[in-house]
Design goal:
Layout: E1 2-7, H1 14-22, E2 27-32, E3 44-48, H2 49-55, E4 61-63, H3 65-74, E5 77-80
Parallel strand pairs: 1-2, 1-5, 2-3, 3-4
Length: about 80
């Protein structure tokens, strides 16, 4: 199963722990939005391009809004935190 976790709060470790546990049996990706672009998870990670640029953050695979919408349909399950 393909699971996409959309994370907005960099201080909440629960979503990252759950995503990491799910990655043992599933294809898991993280989409960082808002202040979560400061996080550095060990999983396949994307960041909202506008949010990363606004905060001066580099190092993530940045995606635009159009790509984010596509991702919502590519994954079997989408979890927003």
């Amino acid at each position: 199963m393909k699971i996409l976790h959309i994370i907005r709060n960099p201080n909440d470790v629960t979503p990252l722990e759950i995503a990491k546990a799910q990655s043992k049996d599933n294809e898991v990706a993280i989409l960082l939005m808002h202040d979560a672009v400061y996080a550095t998870p060990d999983l396949l990670t994307f960041a909202c391009k506008k949010d990363a640029e606004a905060r001066g953050v580099a190092g993530h695979d940045c995606v635009d809004y159009e790509r984010i919408v596509e991702m919502l349909f590519e994954y079997d399950t989408v979890i927003s935190w």
